[in-house]
Amino acid sequence: MTVPMSEEITVHATTGTVEVKGADFDSLLRIGSTLVAYQWRDLEGSVAQYLIQRASAEPLLDVLAFRHSVETWPTSGTSLSGHFSQVVSLLAPGRYRLAVSDAWQDVEYVALDPTDCGERAFKHFYAGCGALVATQSSTTIRASLVRDYVNQIEAGHRPLVITIAAFEGWSEFILDGHHKVLAYLQLRLPIPRLSIVRLGAPVLRTEALSAVPLFHPLRCHLEENKDVPES
What we know:
Elements: E1 18-22, E2 26-31, E3 34-40, H1 47-55, H2 59-71, H3 80-83, H4 85-88, E4 95-103, E5 108-112, E6 131-137, H5 143-154, E7 161-166, E8 171-176, H6 178-187, E9 191-199, H7 217-224
């Protein structure tokens, strides 16, 4: 049996490079300038719900309001920015177009599958016909919740998915609704979503190279386009 022991210390200036930040809600491990791992608590799904809870002064109320907004359609006379105000509050400064419409039912769904390699955040796929790119690990997808949404949709309910994309971008990143997307795809139905499009989005610049593996194709692409000015 292990004898419990503990000690609190203060480490002053050293050449050490192992650093951990955060608390119970989210935390990260970094070695030097390299992000090794980042964890946040899963709120039944989405990066949008995580960010709302993270930034809000009243996280429970705002998360509940957000969930209501994606489960109900905007009423006549209600602005999209007002109906989806919790999501709008998360956006970086810039011009955006908000639209509620259907994504085609044969759209490609690009799953986020964690692996042991450092390239887990970089996916290879051809998005010429459009793609919905997951921002939530496939390991957190719950079959029971997908089935719940299948049942709701079959009963006539049409919960919304939220995506964000750059203007003329080929892919849309899913901010909320991974389980809903899978339910709609399973039923082969069009996917109703709030599409957030950033107009005049800055191009990827060379500073993005620091996060890209040395021999990854994206690094070559960025290097080839490094002189393209920002919009």
